[in-house]
Amino acid sequence: MEGHLHEWLNLLVRWIHVIVGVAWIGASFYFNWLENNLNRKPPQEKGIAGHLWAVHGGGFYYLKKFSHGPDTLPTELHWFKWEAYTTWLSGITLLIIVYYFNAELFLINSSADGLTGAEAILLGITAVGISWFIYDLLCRSPLKQHPLFLGVLIFIYFSLLAFMLSEVFSGRGAYIHVGTAIGTVMVANVFFVIIPAQKEMVLALKDKRPLDPVYGQNGLLRSRHNNYLTLPVLFIMVSSHFPSTYGHHWNWLILIALSLISVAVRHYFNLRHLFRSLWWILPLSFIAIICLMWLTAPKPHQSTKPSGAVTTNTVFPIIQARCTSCHSSLPTQPGFSTAPQDLAFDSLEDVETHAERIHNVSVVSKTMPLGNLTAMTDEERLLIADWFASLSTLKTQ
Ligand code: HEC
Question: What predicted TM-score, i.e. pTM, was given to this entire model?
C-alpha cells in the first residue's frame, strides 16, 4: 500500500511540475520571441518602440511595446511569476518524493563506501544553496560589465559542481542536483531580481519619476542567463530515462558536453531571431552529438570463456539474489508494490527475453541494482557479460 501511495504522489506532483514548467518556459520562450520579432521600423506611433501582428487560435492579435511605459498604469496588468515559483515548489517536492524518501536507492551507491542517506540529502541541499550564493555574488561583482566572461565563469562553476557531485552521488543523484541547482538559480533570478525590477518600474511610473536604469540592466542580465540555462535544465530533467548518460563512467563530462551543445543551439536561435544567422552552429552541434554518441558507445565484451559455458541457468541465481527483490511479480523490497517498469525476472524465459536490458543496466551502465542495494559484485557483473556475449554469438551462428 505504501508503495502504491508513493507512486500516486509521484505521479500527481510530476504531472503538476511538467504543466507549470511548460507554462513557465513557454511564456519565457514566447516573450523572447516577441522581443526579437517586433517591427521596430519607423514610423511608429508616438511612445511606441515596436509592434507586431500575429494570428493564432482563430483570431488576429496586435501587440505594441512601449518605449518607456504608458502615461497611466492600466487597471489590470498581467505578471508572469507564479509559473516560475510553482515550477520550483513542485520540483523540490518531487526531489523529496523521488530522491530523498529513497536516498539509499536513488541518491547514493549503497555498496560503495561513502555517505549515508541523511548525509547525502544534507550535501545535496547545501550544494543547491551554495550554488545560488556563488552565482549571485558573481553577478553582483564588477564582472557584470563583462557578460561573456561572466557567462563562461558560470558555466565553469556548474561544470565543477557536476564533477564534484558525481564523485559522491549516484549518477542520477548527481545529475538531478546539478539540475536543481540551475533551476533554483533561474527561479531565484525571477524572485530576487527580475520581479523586483519590474515592481520598481511600475512604482516609478506611478510616482512619475525616472527609473534607475540599474534595475533594468540587472533584470536583463539575469533573464539572459535564464534563457541560456533553459535547455541544459530540460535535458537534466528528462535524463533519468537515459542510463547511457548518467550511468556512464564519465557522466559529468557527458553532462557538460550536452549542456555546451544546447547552449550553442540556444545561441543560434537567439541570433536567428535577430536575423544574424551563424548557420554553422547547427551542423556543428549535430556533429558534436554524433561524436558524443560514438565516444560513449559500449565496448563489445570479449568473453574469456568458451562459447556456451555460461548459460542462463548460471546467471539465474544471480538475478534471483540481486534483482528479484524488486523485479518480481511479488516484490519483497519494502516500498515496491509492483515490479518496476513492469520488468519481472521470475523465470528463465523472463531473463532471456530481457537479456539485452539486463546486460545494459547491470554491466554497461551499472545503474542496476538500484543504489546497488543488493550488493551485486563485479564478478557477477562479469559473469552476466560473459553470458550475454555467448547468447549473442549463439544468435549470430
Ligand atoms: C531496489 C530495487 C531494485 C533492484 C534490486 C533492481 N532494480 Fe531494476 N529498477 C528498479 C526501479 C525502481 C526501476 C525504475 C527506475 C526508473 O524508472 O527510474 C528499475 C528499472 C530497471 C530497468 C529498466 C531501466 C531502463 O532504463 O531500461 C531494468 C532493465 C532493470 N531495472 C534491471 C534490473 C536488474 C538486471 C537488476 C539486478 C541486477 C535490478 N534491476 C535490480 C529497482 C530495482
Answer: 0.89
